[in-house]
Amino acid sequence: MTAVLELERVTHVYGSGHVAVAALDGVSLAVAAGELVAVMGPSGAGKSTLLNLAGGLDRPTGGRVVVAGTDLGRLDGRGLAALRRRRVGYVFQDVNLLPGLTAAENVALPRELDGVRTRDARAEALAALELVGLTERAGAFPDELSGGERQRVAIARAVAGERVLLLADEPTGALDALTGEAILGVLRARCDDGIAGVLVTHEARYAGWADRVVFLADGRVVDETERAAPAPAGGSPGGSR
Amino acid sequence: MSVKHALLASLAKGPMHGYGLKSEFEARLGQAWPLNIGQVYTTLARLERDGLVEPDPTEGVQPQRGGEERRSWRITEAGRAALAEWYASPVARDGLARDELLVKLTAALDAGIDKVVEVIRAQRTATLELLQRHTRAKADAARRGDLPRLLATDLLIAQAEAEAAWLDLCEARTTSGERRPASRVRTSEREEVPR
After folding, report:
1. Which among B132, B172, B182 is the nearest to A228, CB-wise?
2. Which ranges in A45-146 belong to alpha helices (H)?
3. For an engineered disulfide with A63, which of A10, A85, A110, B186 has Cβ 3.0 to 4.6 Å away?
4. CB pairs below 8 Å between A and B: how many?
5. A69-85, pLDDT tens digit by residue?
6. Chain A contact residues (CB < 8 Å to B)
7. Which CATH number fits domain A3-224: 1.10.10.10, 2.60.120.10, 3.40.50.300, 3.10.20.80?
8. Has the ipTM of the complex gone over 0.90?
9. What are B141-187's pLDDT values in tens digits?
């Protein structure tokens, strides 16, 4: 298995001197293509810090972060931004769709900003919306979509193009149980198709969808489940693991 | 136990034979709760004794191989009333039911906080692994459109989830207070500790 994301003894200290707090303390974690890893732990355990470092939104104080074979520490600001845009997708609890754009335009926009031609970006966006079961809502504006549909658009946006790593921070936070479950089903299916996924959640029921669950406390990995057996035969669509 | 009510619920739709009742019970709960045919017959005998079911007079007794009788059963008015009462009464969930984990955790308290945390973490890992297995079973049931199985796995997931949440709480309670985890201590304070 190829690791898409590798954290090697990653440490992150916020602040310095009297107010320095180690949010992550020597965490190592590898996530392979096709794998979904859930990260759990109490507030302040370092879950979001881990996600920010994995996505290159922040740089570690110590250790190495490698995404798709690239050591993020070797990239300058521009290189890091380019890798973030092209290779990494983010899904947050707060969906952040642009209200004046349709679902398809919201998905296509980051690709266009990245230099992809409008027509190609639109084709990619429609393909991504199809993957999350929203083909028929492509022309709808965010305020015409339900909470679950908006989150699906965000997932489509996060997987469109050539992205290999999907980072989700409490993506089910504001959704009811059934809608949340449907969102997890979509994330799971994207990983079954070969994307590497990291899901930060405080809800064990959603962590159950992952191949592995890593438990953080005080910036360290304190528990880790065994990699679950492959899904039963006739698994989720496109299962290519 | 609720097997008798489950049988009454099946019979409320119309008369059935013992094997039909067994099949319907298992279709609802799948492998989660296998029911042997002997249990069905003893339950039916008790239900008949209590006047909640009776042999179906519209269908005669059909002799079977081995001399056993294949009878059809139907629900009585008293049976319908018992069923209605069952649906209307909440299932009792009080008491700690001699929970082994609670016994283990409280025993570990005497051995010190580190032991408690060790027990909590080992259990939580096992609980999360269980959750992963249930979630896979659930996804499978969803694909097959098996609603009874879905509901059964939902219950197992909710129970595992509750246990995981309780373990989190146990860990937070036992480690708060006098003991502060090392990495939450400000690094500057850590450096000041005499070596």
Report:
1. B132
2. 47-54, 77-87, 103-113, 118-131
3. A10
4. 89
5. 999 999 999 999 989 88
6. 13, 17-22, 25, 40, 42, 44, 185, 188, 203-205, 207-211, 213, 215, 217-220, 222-226, 228-229, 231-232, 234, 236
7. 3.40.50.300
8. no
9. 888 998 888 898 999 999 999 999 899 889 888 888 544 444 444 44
